């Protein structure tokens, strides 16, 4: 267990403590929060949460189950949890020294309380501690909440994929954060 560092900065803090991910527990006010690696028992909660997050990436049951296959060693899924249960998750995969954030979602009633910021911060911390040199992702252009979250962690726009998303059709904005 360790203490979480302060929060996002415009330039990524260099002295991020290394993290062998087990469980991070912290208390904010009277709320007990923990961030931990997801297990297969979290799948129902993760899928229910994603179902109610229209702008999250939508995966099949098989894709979620595959997260816990031994062949998915390059993938990481973290859960943020309060006493009342799972409040969000983030999924990423390592592609060599580059990590890709594939999905992140916080339960509707728990949004705008800083949980996404903390969860993404832990993921970045973990990526860095495992040797990542950069982290990248794609997001719908209109998803201002997610873009605000990424920019809060100093991600910068690195490109655009025209009409990348369907239903509705929309450009993807690519973001990247380098740890150099
Ligand atoms: C994106 C998401 C994960 C953010 O989680 P969250 O816990 O609400 O985020 P935080 O409270 O930590 O907010 C972090 C920053 O994001 C931005 N943000 C979050 N919600 C926002 C909103 N509704 N409108 C505008 N900006 C918003 C702000 O910049 C905020 O920083 P601030 O509080 O200092 O202003 C959440 O909105 C969500 O689950 N959305 C649906 C799923 C999704 O779109 N995932 C991204 C797929 S690429």
Would you mind describing this structure in some detail?
This protein has 180 residues and is an alpha+beta fold. The chain has a domain at 24-135: Aminopeptidase. The protein is built from 4 helices and 8 strands; from the N terminus they run ββααβββαβαββ. An 8-stranded mixed beta sheet has the order 1-2-3-4-5-6-8-7, with helices on both faces. Helix 3 (115-129) links the parallel strand 5 and strand 6. The longest helix has 15 residues, at 115-129. The protein is globular and about 40 Å long. Residues 1-7 and 9-20 have low confidence and may be disordered. The site of coenzyme A (COA) has 21 residues, from strand 5, helix 3 and helix 4. The site of coenzyme A has 21 residues, from strand 5, helix 3 and helix 4.
Summarize the structure.
With 180 residues, the chain is α+β, with helices and mostly antiparallel strands. It is built from four helices and eight strands, in the order E-E-H-H-E-E-E-H-E-H-E-E.
* Cofactors and ligands: coenzyme A
CATH homologous superfamily classification of the domain at 24-135: Gcn5-related N-acetyltransferase (GNAT)
The averaged pLDDT comes out at 87
Major β-sheet profile: 8 strands, mixed
- Reported by name, the CATH topology of the domain at 24-135 is Aminopeptidase
How many strands in all? 8
Low-confidence stretches: 1-7, 9-20
**Gross morphology:** globular
**Count of discrete alpha- or pi-helical segments spanning 4 or more residues:** 4
The whole-angstrom Rg is 16 Å
Note the beta-strand portion: 35-45%
Which strand order does the major sheet show?
1-2-3-4-5-6-8-7
CATH class of the domain at 24-135: Alpha Beta
The level of helicity is 10-25%
